[in-house]
Write a structure and sequence with these properties.
17 helices; 19% helix; single chain; Immunoglobulin-like; alpha+beta; binds 1-deoxynojirimycin; 10-stranded antiparallel beta sheet; 52 strands; 10-stranded mixed beta sheet
Length: 935
């Protein structure tokens, strides 16, 4: 095995340039349960109207109490056996609904396991514990009506103003979810509901069924013992009237999901969710990547709806669409290997409503520490503490801002996490202390595989305490990863999390200081010699759950344990973590990135839809390796990647061990200057970014938004995924992702747009061709916005702490504008006690004002005192009313000061095609106070 490990390591490390090895990963046909369910769909389609689903709801068993409807679904099987499937439908105050279907026999443990397995007999029913943010409030006002709208149906009325209803068809069992009496989501309309109930081996064959994929399954020489036999769950979810569906990351694909049953431009395979370390992944593909969020949003003119399939096992999703303009619809087919049917339904009017509803279930993104949204300098690897210090000092020499420098796995002693390489990193504290001087941070990789070596304290403790993942025979599972032979922490076990917590304490994690934060990589889990590069499905986790049941949650449990560890280490410091593997709910704790991309233009281009999709799916703190992980980018690609990377919520440059150094200061002129300008632009707009992060943390809105979020009624924009909006700022970016010097941008709506830099005016409602030479970052401000920024270049975001603000204003046709600013200390939880400001900025009737929209708390006054000297140093009003040509001053009335005072205004007339602008210099209102300026 050592030889094998060495070979795999060698391939992994040394051979970039290969394409994905398809034979390592299953297709649907190679995955027994996926094939069985797809075959069922084909059969239903071929049978046509006479196809009947064998599932019926027993009306007499239905009971309703306080928002919860319980009952039994019966499966009609050839054997005549009574297959009872308890169903629970919950209706929540938030307007969400949930359908859970389990299997009576499995709930009661009345099944037999094969191969002397000790696996849990139940269907996995704990995914909600990890993915959701606690119990939702049940609806008090939901109403149940038996035999309504007629015999054979039951009806639930629920949701805001009773606008939602669920019509339950008894036979066959179907559910229509309606808004104002119109169906928007239809479950089992195609009759593909399927829950493979437990049967002993041979019982299928006795009835003429094909058992060839029911039992042991072998793929690429790995045999899965499948002690419970076939146990998949599936259902079809139809969205009548919808042609666009979004979400279900992670795939390297466009945002508007493609059909998956073949045809031009479509996929042949379903979208797969099975967290995998896919080496050199393919673009425009439905293949699984590192993370899984089984949440889909359907959008059309006037409404948005969504579903969340809460299942952590391997999942495939087929999509077919009907394009006929009278009969538009999208039908989806969700198929998981094991677990329960557990489906949330969200109905609403806008993408925002649905994102908010999903966030109420799985939690909103963490408000990260401010440094986390600055620029991160990473590579595999900075080779010594001296190397780190030199890079740090050279950034300063060239006056390039950055917030964190990263250490990949080579900082450790033989890839033993929680240690330092004794020769290369003899003085980790000195290194961190140097970073502290400019308030920068260090981020180190700590992976969940632990080198198996007696004498290595982490390995000894992991094994002696019984906290590792087990194999099917209940022995500690051995596999290989970066350190060679390794064991894996079982973070599903609360005892593992408690132990992991102790490892992060300063007295155990020697050499770590308070400015050290963590990346947990390889959490899929990545196992070099394992089936599909992960661990066997019949491995056993805490609670005797098989790995197959929990696979997609594995990375989340690790992040969960590390998040808690960092929090316990420094109670009032917001943790920063990065993960590659994720599931619904990971957004509460961490940032993610799109893994090992390549230094190719196509990879730069795909990063935009991938990051947008993550935002749609409630996990917006997303980024991609700037510059490309594998291979060396040329200067054009690298420059364009930085210019695009400043629009990633998580903005980190990273590269493979074999790549050449490419820190921005090493790049030849004039490209270095272009890159530095891009970095400074990111820092200039940090107040706007931080405000967008804050918004995400309270309502789940994406930090960078796709076109259809801003113009939900403009069908032309629904599929656009190469331009993006920064929060609610009205800033539209169109990154150049090809080696060209022009690009096209679609400027929707009815307000004018202005070039961010020179105020060139663009008329709305069409696509414009834009000159974009290498130095140009195409970006626009739509009329009607007020953008807060800070214009003084500093070495790190923390050093901008006391800097004054600049406000940029563009007006609507009606002469109005709006914006907002959220601001706090950027590192602690004091904002929970009111230590922040949240201001609404308004322009109406030629008056610019700042209004308090925050809530007061115990620490509000203290915080306001702390920031009392932070002022607005400049206001730029673009395309001002012409009357201002004759004005030399503006009048300012600031709360508390009692009297009005003046500030000078200068009017700048510019060339045709560009907008005039006025600048108010040093108006000096305090950023935290209420004020008005009369223009
Ligand atoms: C895989 C990660 O995707 C990559 O970012 C990292 O550099 C390597 N593991 C080595 O730790």
């Amino acid at each position: 095995m050592l030889r094998l490990t060495f070979f795999v390591l060698l391939v992994y490390i040394i051979v970039p340039g290969l394409a994905v090895t398809h034979e390592d990963f299953k297709t649907c046909t190679q995955s027994g349960f996926c094939k069985r369910n797809r075959d069922l769909a084909d059969k239903a389609f071929a049978t046509g109207k006479s196809w009947t689903s064998p599932y019926t709801l027993t009306p007499d068993a239905l009971k309703f109490d306080s928002g919860v409807l319980t009952g039994v679904v019966r499966k009609d099987v050839v054997s005549g056996e009574d297959v009872e499937l308890p169903i629970v439908m919950s209706f929540y105050e938030s307007g969400a609904a949930r359908v859970v279907i389990d299997e009576e026999k499995r709930m009661a443990g009345l099944i037999e396991l094969r191969h002397d397995s000790k696996a849990n007999k139940k269907r996995y029913d704990e995914a909600w514990k990890w993915a959701t943010d606690g119990e939702l409030e049940l609806s008090e006002s939901a109403i149940f009506r038996q035999d309504h709208p007629g015999p054979g149906y039951s009806l639930m009325n629920y949701g805001p103003n009773d606008r939602f209803s669920a019509i339950l068809h008894h036979s066959p069992f179907e559910v229509e979810f309606q808004i104002d009496g119109k169906t928007h989501i239809h479950l089992n309309s195609r009759g593909l509901l399927n829950l493979e109930h437990w049967r002993p081996k041979g019982s299928g064959e006795a009835l003429g069924e094909d058992e060839s994929t029911w039992w042991e399954e072998t793929f690429a020489k790995f045999t899965d013992s499948k002690p419970r036999g076939p146990e998949s769950v599936a259902v079809d979810v139809e969205f009548p009237g919808y042609n666009h569906v979004f979400g279900i990351p992670e795939h390297a694909d466009q945002i508007s999901l493609r059909e998956t049953r073949g045809g031009p431009g479509n996929h042949e395979e379903p979208y797969r969710l099975y967290n995998s370390d896919v080496f050199e992944y393919e673009l425009n593909s439905p293949m699984s990547l590192y993370g899984a969020i089984p949440y889909m949003q359907a959008h059309r003119f006037g409404s948005t709806v969504g579903v969340f399939w809460l299942n952590a096992a391997e999942t495939w999703i087929d999509i077919v669409k009907e394009h006929d303009s009278n009969d538009k619809q999208t039908s989806t087919h969700w198929i998981s290997e094991s677990g329960r049917i557990d489906l949330f339904i969200f109905l609403g009017d806008t993408p925002k409503d649905i994102g908010q509803a999903y966030g109420k279930v799985t939690g909103y993104p963490q408000l990260p520490p401010q440094f986390a949204i600055g620029y991160h300098q990473c590579r595999w690897n900075y080779m010594s503490d001296e190397d780190v210090k030199t890079v740090d000092a050279t950034f300063d020499k060239y006056q390039i801002p950055y917030d964190a420098i990263w250490l990949d796995i080579e900082y450790t002693d033989e890839r033993k996490y929680f240690t330092w390489h004794p020769l290369r990193f003899p003085s980790p504290k000195d290194m961190q202390e140097q970073l502290m001087e400019s308030e920068r941070k260090l981020v180190v990789l700590i992976d969940p595989h632990i080198k198996k070596e007696s004498g290595y304290f982490v390995s000894d403790e992991l094994r002696s305490k019984g906290l590792a993942v087990l194999n099917k025979d209940n022995e500690i599972y051995d596999g290989s990863c970066w350190p060679g032979l390794s064991n894996w922490i079982d973070a599903f076990n609360p005892a593992t999390a408690a132990w992991w917590n102790t490892l992060h304490k300063y007295d155990r994690y020697k050499g770590s200081l308070s400015n050290l934060f963590i990346e947990n990589d390889m959490g899929e889990p990545s196992v070099f010699h394992g089936p599909e590069l992960t661990m066997p499905r019949d491995n056993i986790h805490h609670g005797n759950w098989e790995h197959r049941d929990v696979h997609n949650l594995n990375g989340l449990t690790i992040i969960n344990a590390t998040f808690q560890a960092l929090l316990d280490r420094e109670a009032n410091t917001r943790p920063f973590l990065l993960t590659r593997s994720f599931y619904s709910g990971s957004q509460r704790m961490t940032a993610m990135w799109t893994g090992d991309n390549q230094a190719k233009w196509e990879h730069l281009a795909i990063s935009l839809p991938m990051i947008l999709t993550n935002g749609i799916a409630g996990f917006p703190f997303a980024g991609a390796d700037v510059g490309g992980f594998f291979d060396d980018p040329d200067v054009h690609l690298l420059t364009r990647w930085y210019q695009a990377g400043i629009w990633y919520p998580f903005f980190r440059a990273h590269s493979h061990l074999d790549t050449k150094r490419r820190e921005p200061y090493l790049i030849q002129e004039p490209y270095r200057t272009y890159i530095i300008r891009a970095l400074r632009l990111r820092y200039q707009l940090l107040p706007a970014w931080y405000t967008a992060f804050h918004e995400a943390s309270i309502n789940g809105m994406p930090i960078v938004r796709p076109q259809y979020y801003i113009f939900p009624k403009d069908e032309e924009g629904f599929a656009i995924d190469d331009q993006l909006w920064l929060g609610g700022t009205g800033i539209l970016a169109k990154p150049v992702v090809e080696d060209t010097d022009s690009t096209e941008v679609y400027l929707a709506g009815e307000e004018k747009y202005y070039d961010y830099f020179d105020f060139t005016i663009y008329s709305p409602g069409k696509t414009h061709s834009i000159e974009a030479p290498m130095e140009k970052i195409p970006m626009f401000i739509k009329g009607g916005h007020i953008i807060p920024r800070r214009d003084r270049p500093r070495r790190s975001s923390a050093l901008m702490r006391s800097d004054p603000f600049t406000l940029i204003v563009t007006l609507t046709k009606d002469g109005t504008a709006e914006g907002s600013l959220y601001f706090d200390d950027g590192e602690s939880y004091d904002y929970e006690e009111g230590a922040y400001i949240h201001r609404q900025l308004l322009f109406h009737d030629r008056v610019l004002s700042s209004v308090d929209i925050g809530a007061r708390g115990r620490q509000t006054d203290k915080f306001l005192k702390k920031i009392e000297n932070i002022t607005v140093e400049r206001i730029v009003l673009i395309d001002p009313p012409p009357e201002l040509k004759n004005t030399q001053t503006v009048k300012i009335l600031e709360e508390g000061s009692g009297s009005e005072y003046d500030a000078p205004l200068a009017y700048y007339e510019v060339d045709e095609g560009k907008a005039d602008y006025v600048v108010v210099k040093k108006p000096n209102m305090r950023i935290g106070s209420t004020w008005q300026i009369k223009f």
